[in-house]
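Hi, does anyone understand the following?
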Amino acid sequence: MGFECGQYLIEEWRKCCEHVEEPNDSEKLILSCGFQELLRKLVLEAQNNARRDGFSEVKPGHLEAALEDLLHI
C-alpha cells in the first residue's frame, strides 16, 4: 500500500504545483508513511474529542476540531 499511496500523493501534488520532480521509491515510501501517520493522529484525536463529548462515534465536528488541533489553527 505504501507505494500506491505515495504515487497517489505525488499525482495530487502535481495537480497543484507545476514543477514536482519524480521521487524515487524510497522517497515515495517516506511520503506515504508520513501521510499515514498524519491520518492516524487525526483519527485518534477525533476519537478522543468524541469520547470527551460523550459520543461513541466520531462526528464531522470532531474531525474538524482534530484537524485544527493537528495544524495548530
About this structure: The chain is about 75% helix and 0% strand. The chain has one domain: 2-71.
